[in-house]
Specification:
The chain is of the alpha+beta class. The chain is 15% helix and 33% strand. The chain is extended. InterPro entries: Ribosomal_uL3, Ribosomal_uL3_bac/org-type, Ribosomal_uL3_CS, Transl_B-barrel_sf.
Length: 303
């Protein structure tokens, strides 16, 4: 902990190490020395003042910048609530369709997500061994020849079949989970739940600034020579370079994307499909990661 020394003769805030911060006054002892000054020798008075000065230097504990506010005092923020996720699953995007609600017949655009063989627990990670609690899930069974020997050994240790995809989901508790356990979708989600869906978005290749960053094009007539050109990308001699992060033409898509708080409209256990309201990243056949939505703010759909 960082330490600093201050005089007791000044009014200040003191941390006594118990978390209570209060005010301290050190003016009583100097007044006593001044009262006894006429009857004491000058050398003894000087010695007493020197001892008083040395004893008044008391260490005061201060909070480091890296420590959370309220960690060493009784204020709020010491036990901040940590938002943890839940067990999720992996699925395959099949496409989009229109779903008509039984009550009212309202048309709802949904994405159909299918589930191949998999979603089996392949490993449990604990805070004691790995520093955090998490469960590793395997998805989409493949032939043994598609995996390496270390991958096959890792899956055999859990008693699971060869799986192409392995992903982790951090948890607060690992109760009720064991290696080789198959996750049942009906036990994890129900209709009306909100989920976060992440996947690789559709790659669109090299695109210009208009399509990639929604730039506005220039005039098409009246002698203009800059129709879809980018325009100025910076000054000349100063700074003499293009700043990092400048929006310019480049590759669009093909990156990991997450859409939060999507509603599960329908779960069909017989067909092993789930209908999620709205669109999700990727094209049909892409791998999807579906996890319980992290409700942090108030931006929750009304329907």
């Amino acid at each position: 902990m960082a330490r600093c020394y201050i005089l007791l003769g000044q009014r200040r805030r003191v941390n006594d190490g118990t978390g209570d911060i209060g005010n301290s006054h050190g003016g009583g002892i100097p007044i006593l020395v001044l009262v006894l000054a006429p009857v004491l020798p000058p050398l003894l008075i000087l010695l007493l003042l020197l001892l008083l000065l040395l004893s008044s230097l008391r260490p005061v504990t201060r909070r480091k910048h890296s420590e959370p506010r309220g960690a060493d005092c009784g204020g709020a923020g010491g036990d901040a609530e940590q938002h943890g996720g839940g067990v999720g699953v992996m699925g395959t995007k099949l496409g989009m369709m229109t779903y008509f609600e039984p009550e009212g017949g309202a048309a709802v655009p949904v994405t159909v997500v299918g589930f191949r063989e998999g979603n089996v627990v392949t490993q449990l990670k604990t805070a004691a061994t790995d520093g955090y609690d998490a469960v590793q899930i395997g998805y989409r069974r493949v032939r043994d020849t598609k995996l390496t020997r270390p991958e096959l050994g890792h899956l055999r240790k859990a008693g699971a079949a060869p799986m192409r995809h392995l992903q982790e989901f951090r948890l607060r508790s690992l109760d009720g989970l064991e290696p080789g356990q198959a996750l049942v979708l009906d036990h994890l989600f129900k209709e009306g739940d909100l989920v976060d869906v992440s996947a690789n978005s559709i790659g669109k290749g090299f695109q210009g600034g208009i399509k990639r960053h929604n730039f506005r094009r220039g005039p098409m007539t009246h002698g203009s020579k800059s129709h879809r050109a980018l325009g100025s990308i910076g000054a000349g001699t100063t700074p003499g370079r293009v700043y990092k992060g400048k929006k310019m033409p480049g590759r669009l898509g093909g990156t990991k994307t997450k859409i939060r708080k999507l509603k599960i409209v329908k779960i069909d256990s017989e067909l092993r499909v789930v209908m999620i309201k709205g669109s999700v990243p990727g094209k049909p056949g892409n791998l999807l990661r579906i996890a319980p939505a992290k409700i942090v703010g108030k931006n929750i759909p009304k329907s």
